[in-house]
Design goal:
Blueprint: H1 3-19, H2 22-27, E1 35-38, E2 42-46, E3 56-60, H3 72-93, E4 97-101, E5 117-122, H4 139-157, H5 170-173, H6 187-190, H7 208-216
Antiparallel strand pairs: 1-2, 2-3, 3-5, 4-5
């Protein structure tokens, strides 16, 4: 399949996703919603199955399935608006705080086929289980993971990874120098951002198709 055919196929798939997306229908006014905020590029509504009263779903009007598909300008816009919505919820509902998060992929809890930001008002003792468990990771594993993330990030941004941070004294860190060749992240994940990857339209070396396939398969990249 040549590049033209592949591009046409991707556009058709995106059009079909948008056509079948409930949240795109909400954006278009075809489905009723409890709208909290709207401007030319984003919309915020109350979740019909809220974690807490005032649970807001903030999303771009344009259809993006996952965060990696959205332009950086849109990401910036969403979080500026999320800040304002969080502040409004705190004042209007007299809450004790807000939890703001993005569920990116099925394994991360994403259920909607449309990229969105959750803003959830919190009250002391509300019983909402959104805590993050602490899982001890060996220092050598953390070091290898750091190197792998930096390598992918460097390829994506077209820049060499930054130098390693200063090492803690051995007595404090309690670890030996890690074995660089030991694989930590599965091979299919290491492919993202590698030299063999396809580039996105901006030429940044990010293979959005690979990232999307990972997220569709319930695997974080």
């Amino acid at each position: 399949m040549d590049g033209t055919a592949s591009g046409a196929s991707s556009e058709q798939a995106a059009a079909l996703q948008k056509e079948n997306c409930l949240f795109c229908h909400i954006v278009e006014g075809k489905v009723l919603s409890r709208k909290v905020y709207e401007d030319e590029s984003v919309i915020a509504i109350l979740d019909i199955n809220p974690a807490n009263a005032g649970h807001i779903l903030l999303m771009p009007k344009e259809h993006y399935l996952f965060m990696p598909q959205a332009p950086e300008t849109m990401i910036g816009k969403l979080f500026v608006v999320a800040k304002q919505l969080s502040h409004a919820a705190l004042r209007a509902l007299r809450t004790d705080g807000t939890t703001i998060f993005v569920a990116n992929g099925g394994i991360a809890g994403q259920r909607a086929p449309h990229f969105m930001v959750h803003i959830i008002p919190r009250l002391t003792g509300d019983g909402l289980a959104l805590s993050v468990a602490e899982n001890p990771i060996a220092a050598e594993v953390n070091e290898q993971v750091r190197k792998q993330i930096q390598a992918v990030l460097g390829a994506a941004l077209g820049a060499a990874p930054s130098s390693a941070p200063a090492e803690m004294p051995e007595a404090v860190s309690g670890r030996a120098e890690p074995a660089a060749e030991k694989p930590i992240v599965p091979e299919e994940r290491k492919k993202v951002g590698s030299d063999s990857d396809k580039q996105d339209s901006s030429g940044n070396g990010v293979d959005l198709d690979t990232i999307t396939n990972m997220l569709l398969g319930g695997r974080n990249g």
